[in-house]
Amino acid sequence: MSLTCGEEQKRLAVLLRNSLCLSAFTVFPLLPKEIRLRIWDFALIPRVISIARREDVSRGDSLQFQILSSASDNPSVIWIALACAESFRMVNMRYHEWFIWDFFRDVNNSLISPLHDVIYLPCDLRGSTVQQLHQKFTAQTAPLRTIALSSTSTHEIGKPTEVLEALHDFPCLKELVIVKTNAGKDWGDANKVWQIPQDILNAMEILKKEKWPDWEIPLIRVVTAEGDALC
After folding, report:
1. Which of 18, 38, 53, 178 is the most exposed place for a label (fewest CB within 10 A)?
2. Is the confidence at residue 57, as pLDDT, over 60?
């Protein structure tokens, strides 16, 4: 049975990660450069990175946001960067350093790829939170291609349109992923609970017509699990 491109990529990435602990594989440097770079590229697997705003800022202003998962769950980026000069250059080209606290590693710097990783805000649907993330990390968030939001929120939701207005600040945004969850408060306003994704798309069309005629509205995709945001 032949493997799909995605399955082949995952298989090669697993093989490479496993081989990092071995010293017997000595022919890798002898491979053509194009193949080596392709292997490094396959090994740098895109991630869904969950980010939440910290209400407790006792650690300082630079820690108003924290990474909840994924960057810690998949630390292979750091291992690959340390493998050799060639892999270090590959990581350096793809990833930006965000000075954002990683909850599990207890460090204040994380490598995130705005072109490959998906930023997921799982529990806070306030437009102000999306705006603050952009304002605090303007250079890092400007190239973001995909942002994921939850279909429910553990916080009080303001006007849903405020969240969508905040997305206009991300000039390269191509896709909005909505992760369907069963806990928390649904998107909605004083009149009704929003139907996702139809009401989101309708609201974006209105914003485009009334405020930003040149706005390229991102595609909207609905998934049932956080990991599916990468598909």
Report:
1. 18
2. no
